[in-house]
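for the writeup, i need someone to sanity check this before i put it in the appendix. the sequnce is what the collaborator sent (i think, or maybe the updated version? ugh). structure was predicted straight from it, no edits. if anything looks off just tell me and ill rerun, i have time this weekend
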Amino acid sequence: MTVFFDASVIIAAILSPTGGSAKLLHLAKHKVIVAITSQTVIDEVLDHTEKIQKAPKEISWYIKDAGLLVRERITQEEIEKVSGIIDATDAHLLVGA
């Protein structure tokens, strides 16, 4: 099973190591599921370092250790292709998945 992780799930996993989001990343780390995200989502997570209260390097290590497959940043051209299908602020999630 392949699961796309958005910023809120990754942040929740970091903030609550025993919560459901962390359990999903644990499954990914142990290859029970395939976890994918995009560099755009990672950038969004890194924009919230103050909320997470961890250094960007720690966050990046956590993501790498979790076994997430990270695709390249979503381009504006890709977002425009789904324009009108989904809210503009969520378009990068549809494209990334």
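The longest helix spans residues 20-29. The chain is about 55% helix and 10% strand.
thx in advance!!
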